[in-house]
Write a structure and sequence with these properties.
- This protein is mainly α.
- The protein has 42 helices and no strands.
């Protein structure tokens, strides 16, 4: 087999040739991976081969070793480790030798390949001489190309590999990297690679940063790099400073005073390269991010009567007076035809200004308001837009009492500016009005401002598609802030008198065929919000909206077979998704009133779900609509269960589509609540699929807590008929209940809390389902395991408020259901301690405290 030809064909313009070559290479990898990897590395290391072939070979080999998806990655890792040691060494040697090629792009791919192998082997203490070899390339050569390629490889290895695996060699890595990053290094490409490698190594050089001398040297090298003649090196150096601020804020006080403040201001004033300016702005955004978090931590510590764990130096506060004028000037650097999706200096400055407002709060007002007042009527549109952007950016942070007089004064001007001749200005005005609606709704007086504001926003729908999104967002915020809370019945609201006009304008707008700038999607989202937060006097109009949406959904279903191209299919799916979103909210808002068109809705939804061309997102949206139907119709949903359940089961049989799977699990819960004992006929199938999914290696872990909780929903619905499933479910719950998180792994702590909450909810459903039935005693043999699990949770210092509340609720349910029969378990010492802690500690909310008082009474009665 001529691998070089196959690789060439994978790059061909001819689709058939390209697909055939790709399939043949995949087949070779499946049949004999060792041979496949040897053939590819020979191409990578072959200096006589064309660069494109060498790069294609390197990329194919790297991709066969590293995947983003966990299960695939695990398969690839195991496959590599099963290759014989001699073959693996030949591949590694070939990759290392290729670093010396003068072909920079090929050398770069070799570095990525080395990192992919290192990610697998270094955690297993394999390839022990890798770091020594690559460091020799940097320190013992005058070959600039080899030095650069090796530094790139070191950077990739540091980025890909678990930092723990590299800590023992941190001194050696740091020495080599810093040597390449120094100002004495004449080759700027080498210096760039070194700075990037340093950035990737920052996480595992913590011990070096603890030592003042080493820290000073690292900081000196990075600061000097911000002054390089190469703008790429400057950008990389500022990126490095951003990462240092994230990781080592507590060590930055001295450097902020001596260097960083001046360097970053100079960077923001750079006239030559926008990328330098962006990274200098990002530095101050990061400072604000860190200090916002530290202030929250200090506030929590003060509430607990404790000392904060970390120091807060208030860098942003001290710098406000000097940084603000620069940020405000940068706001005026907009481009007239700028791409909304392309990050630029004015966007970055606005984001940074917003973070400053959240960080320094009232202190941001002084420097910003004079700029707004002096520039908002300027004849140059850039200054008008910058003034409005500055005003909108500071509305989240300062005290409402400080902001309200300013907003009162500005609101009429802002509303009038919705007719500005420049689209950029109108777009920012619409966004700022949305911010006011979201954050300071009390400033919008219904009798003074609302008519003009609504008129301006509705008129904006007829303007450039670019501003429609922000007009719709503003209308959504008005609906949410002025309407009743979800589930609350209110006769009327301040927005009721405008409801028909707004909804009619939005429905007319959504009749457009295209979705430029996502404007049609935004309009449908606004309709959804209007519906969801409508008062009772708008119900007839919501009914009309539901009928209009149903008509449109039927039209899209009728068009299914006429759509051919992939782009048309994507746009059609997006439209159906928007329609289903509005329909779902109409069903939720109308509740039982939807019954008159239930047959029509379910016919359409079932047709959508059965159509062969459906996308998973459409299935998800249709499932959400059906979930709303189960809640609205309750037991009357039974007539639709038979045609729907097979579709639901199909979704559960595809754990790889985990978001769809999660919605499907939630739908089983919805069916249980709606049908009660009527769901029994489907339970065998449901339970088999749920248990099977729990055991699936493919299923995303976030779905598993929902499955555990769903066991409780099923038990609560069918009561004692749950008995056949008890043994399996209790075993699964015991396994899940034994899971623990490492104390410093906060992501895992959150997940385990969620998992245990699902566990507790399952136990609650089972206990409540059997409680009062003749078979309640079948649960007694499981009591020891349940109380052992509860005891372990009670002793867990990382237990969340919601998990504590669920745990105490379960304790009360058990005491209530079994009384004196479980007296021996209720006398355990941890129980009164847990209940006392929940009632008295400031860590817990009112709801948890009330649950604890009730549970205390239940335990007291049962233990008498």
């Amino acid at each position: 087999m001529d691998v070089a030809n196959l690789l060439a064909h994978t790059l061909s313009q001819d689709q058939a040739l390209r697909e055939d070559a790709t399939q043949k290479l995949q087949l070779l990898a499946q049949e004999n991976y060792a041979q496949y990897s040897l053939m590819l590395i020979q191409q990578v290391a072959n200096d006589q081969a064309e660069d494109t072939i060498r790069m294609a070979a390197g990329l194919a080999l790297k991709n066969s070793l590293s995947a983003k998806e966990y299960t695939r990655k695990e398969e690839q890792t195991n496959r590599w480790l099963q290759v014989d040691a001699d073959t693996r060494n030949q591949v590694k040697q070939g990759a290392l030798l290729t670093l010396a090629t003068p072909r920079k792009l090929v050398a770069n791919i070799a570095g990525q390949l080395i990192a992919a192998i290192a990610e697998i082997e270094l955690p297993l203490q394999q390839w022990p001489d890798l770091i020594r070899i690559v460091l020799e390339n940097v320190t013992n050569t005058d070959n600039a190309a080899l030095k650069m390629a090796t530094l790139q490889a070191i950077g990739y290895v540091c980025e890909a590999t678990d930092p723990v695996c590299l800590q023992r060699q941190s001194n050696e890595i740091l020495t080599a990297v810093v040597q390449g990053a120094r100002k004495e290094e004449q080759d700027q490409e080498v210096r760039l690679a070194a700075i990037r490698a340093l950035n990737n190594s920052l996480e595992f050089v913590k011990e070096n940063f603890e030592r003042e001398g080493e820290r000073n040297f690292i900081m000196q090298v990075v600061c000097e790099a911000t002054q390089s003649q190469s703008s790429d090196v400057q950008v990389a150096a500022f990126e490095c400073l951003v990462r240092i601020m994230q990781l080592y804020y507590d060590k930055m006080r001295y450097y902020m005073e001596k260097a960083l403040f001046g360097l970053t201001v100079a960077g923001m004033n750079n006239q030559e390269d926008e990328k330098v300016v962006l990274q200098a702005i990002e530095f101050w955004s990061t400072v604000c991010d860190e200090e916002i978090e530290l202030k929250e931590e200090a506030l929590e510590a003060a509430e607990m009567g404790e000392t904060p764990e970390h120091n807060l130096y208030n860098f942003a506060e001290y710098a406000t007076g000097d940084i603000m004028p620069v940020l405000l000037w940068l706001l005026t650097k907009q481009e007239e035809d700028e791409d909304e999706d392309e990050w630029n200096v004015s966007m970055a400055a606005a984001t940074c200004l917003s973070l400053f407002a959240q960080c320094v709060r009232n202190n941001v007002i002084g420097p910003v308001v004079p700029f707004v007042e002096s520039k908002i009527q300027n004849t140059d549109w850039r200054y008008r837009e910058a003034a409005v952007m500055a005003f909108g950016s500071i509305l989240d942070g300062p005290d409402d009492t400080v902001l309200m007089p300013l907003v009162d004064q500005a609101l009429p001007t802002l509303i009038n500016m919705m007719t500005d001749p420049v689209v950029n200005v109108k777009d920012t005005v619409a966004w700022t009005l949305g911010r006011v609606s979201e954050l300071l709704i009390q400033c919008i007086k219904p009798d003074i401002h609302l008519r003009d504001l609504v008129s301006a926003l509705v008129l904006g729908l007829q303007d450039n598609p670019r501003i429609v999104g922000n007009c719709c967002w503003s209308l959504m915020n008005l609906a949410e802030q002025l309407g009743p809370a979800i589930g609350e019945e209110t006769p009327t609201s301040a927005l009721s008198m405008y409801f028909e006009g707004i909804s009619t304008a939005l429905l007319q707008f959504t009749e457009r065929a295209d979705n430029e700038s996502n404007c049609r999607t935004s309009a449908y989202e606004a309709i959804s919000s209007l519906v969801m937060f409508s008062a009772n006097d708008c119900i007839p109009m919501v009914q009309n909206i539901a009928l209009t949406i149903l008509d449109r959904l039927d039209q899209t279903i009728a068009m299914e077979n006429q759509i051919i191209g992939a782009d048309d299919r994507a746009e059609h799916s997006e439209l159906q998704s928007s329609l289903l979103g509005v329909l779902t909210n109409c069903i939720r808002r109308l509740s039982r009133d939807i019954a008159s068109v239930a047959d029509r809705i379910m016919t359409g939804l079932l047709h959508l779900l059965n159509s062969t061309s459906k996308q998973s997102t459409i299935t998800e949206d249709a499932f959400l609509a059906i979930g709303a139907m189960t809640s609205a119709l309750e037991a009357d949903f039974a007539r639709y269960a038979e045609p729907f359940v097979p579709i639901l089961c199909t979704a559960l049989q595809n754990p790889a589509e985990y978001q769809l799977c999660s919605i499907a699990v939630g739908l089983i819960g919805d069916l249980c609540r709606a049908l009660g004992e009527g769901v029994t006929v489907y339970c065998n199938t449901f339970m088999q699929l749920l248990v099977s999914n729990l055991q699936s290696p493919v299923l995303h872990r976030t779905v598993k807590p929902n499955i555990l909780s769903c066991f409780g929903d099923v038990a609560l619905a069918i009561g004692e008929k749950f008995e056949p499933y008890l043994d399996v479910v209790m075993m699964v719950l015991q396994q899940a209940g034994s899971m623990r998180a490492e104390k410093d792994n906060f992501e895992m702590i959150d997940y385990v809390n969620t998992l245990h909450e699902g566990n507790v909810e399952a136990y609650v459903g089972i206990v409540q389902g059997f409680s009062g039935s003749q078979k309640v005693a079948v649960l007694l043999p499981y009591m020891q395991g349940i109380f052992h699990f509860m005891n372990a949770l009670a002793l867990d210092p990382n237990r969340s408020d919601s998990l504590t509340r669920a745990l105490i609720g379960l304790l009360g349910d058990l005491a209530d259901a079994f009384g004196p029969q479980i007296k021996q378990f209720l006398q355990a010492e941890w129980i009164p301690h847990l209940l006392r802690e929940a009632r008295t500690s400031r860590h817990y909310g009112t709801s948890t405290k009330e649950t604890a008082r009730w549970a205390k009474e239940m335990v007291k009665r049962a233990a008498q």
